[in-house]
Amino acid sequence: MVTRNLSKRQIDLEIISEWVEPKSRVLDLGCGRGVLLQNLKSEKSIYGVGVDTDPIKINGCIKRGVNAYQGEIGGILKEFSDKTFDVVICSRTVQELINPANIIFEALRVGRAVMIGFVNHGYWVNRFNMVFKGNRVINDVYPQHWYESSPENPVTINEFELFCKESQIRIQRKVYLSGDWDTKLTFLPNLLSGYALYEIAL
Amino acid sequence: MTEIQIELDSDNLSKNIGLVKYVDFTSTETFIFEGGGSINGFTLRYETYGRLNDKKNNAILICHAISGDHHCAGKYTVEDRKPGWWDNMVGPGKAIDTNLFFVICSNCLGGCQGSTGPSSVDPGTGKPYRLDFPSLTIRDIVRAQNLLIEYLNLNELYCVVGGSMGGMQVLQWAIDYPDKVKRILPLASAARQSAQAIAFNEVGRCSIVQDPGWKEGNYSLGEGPSVGLSVARMMAHITYLSDKGMEIKFGRNRRKDTKGHHLTKIEFEVEGYLRYQGQAFINRFDANTYLYFSKAIDRFDLHGEAGKLEDILSKVQARALIIGFTSDWLYTPRQNREIVTALLRCGKNATYAEVDMDLGHDSFLIDAPELYNFVRSFLND
Fold first, then answer.
1. Mean pLDDT for each 10-residue chunk of chain B (381 residues)?
2. Which residues of chain B make contact with A25, given a CB cutoff of 8 A?
3. Cβ of residue B349 closer than 8 Å to a chain A Cβ
4. Which residues of chain A are within 8 Å of residue B345 when distances are taken between CB atoms?
5. Cβ neighbours of B222 (radius 10 Å)
6. CATH class of B2-193+301-380
7. Is A63 on the interface with B (CB under 8 A)?
């Protein structure tokens, strides 16, 4: 289970690392222990700042020599002027936000591009669990049962892309990953993809 | 698992530093103050712990707060009742590890604990400076410390650390000596004194100067405005604590013999505590130094005339960890965050971490594993 989790984290990290240009200025919302930023720093010489509310995770960032800000995402975004960053990363964070649209627009203001990755709740296994078993999703991003997890906002590929279209947000790049998050796919993504990653801009 | 294991191990290994000695550094050159005025040389009292490495790149300077001094760790004699003021933080295997670092703690210029200040004798007149001591700023304090660092033959400081007024000095160090300072760690600090904090300082100053014993600053040594100074300290001490912290520590606990009609006897435990703090302070602190230090703090403002913190923080080269405390209402988390966001806007390497404790502004002095972890991670990354 641990290795599976690690490999899933890895592919997420790899795709984002591939997308980020060398020497960019990167803001990582929900940065955790700073693994992605440390990686980007050593591989692509970026200037990075992470944001997280959890002091234990901030301590992880400090250990890695990664800049981090302990506090709410909405609060720190207000502190930056337009296009302060080349990239704002929002990996596995949107589902936990109270008003995701606000944060996404703020991220688009502060960054030239925003990279968003999330678990697709339209994935057939997730639907099957709900419809036939009557259970909500439990997976690597949602490892906890409802009674031990923070409030979250399930989102599907179709819903996200519709939101972008209606909000006139440009999808510059996207990758759909299969159910095991191992391979990329293009066919019926809302049904067959377990995880989606986007680069969006205004 | 491994992380927890390592931390437990290092805690087990951490020891007290043992017996220490202070040293006096004397500069014979004329020192010109930022606000005008000069003195013919000065003395700074300091202590060092640990050993300087061959590359001379492991020195950490600790800056003290308004009522602090150079004695931050260890004891002078085995009979000493209390060790230095940051003994829980500084020592072999502790968060500021004297097995790894050469730690220097210097008393501030203007002080009254062995360094030159208003109570020192002016060699020109043979009398104490008293209010003829020039107006003092945080920058002056830092510049005097830098002369000590030069005397110690150090070209770089691995880190400058300090809380409260010490944190202000830390920020000033990074601004005035950007090539020398590699890391900064200000705790419970601010880029400028708030109106509320100035207000509290002003009550303290009024209390001192309205005490007849102050005599326009011309009191004799050993005398002075002891009532005014102790009331100033009592009031200031309240601002270093928090509502919740005081509730937990004292609540409404009463002394036993409080029956009957009286108005001035100690009735509640919190009263006894504050009176003790006030009394202890007059025995070790000079009232004029208190006036000078509190003014230096009030005048501290990195926002400058343009009101923009970035203008001055753009000079910083050091990597920064700024630590705020949730219950600190004197130098609030917001004021600590403001320093970090300004540094980040300048593209500097800065981190904001917050420790959630009930003890208010003085939280930075308290035994707290969360705080030690942040400090250790930053110094050892």
1. 40 77 97 97 98 98 97 96 96 97 98 96 95 98 98 98 98 98 98 98 98 97 93 97 96 83 89 96 96 98 92 97 98 98 97 96 94 97 82
2. 347
3. yes
4. 79-81, 84
5. 5
6. alpha beta
7. yes
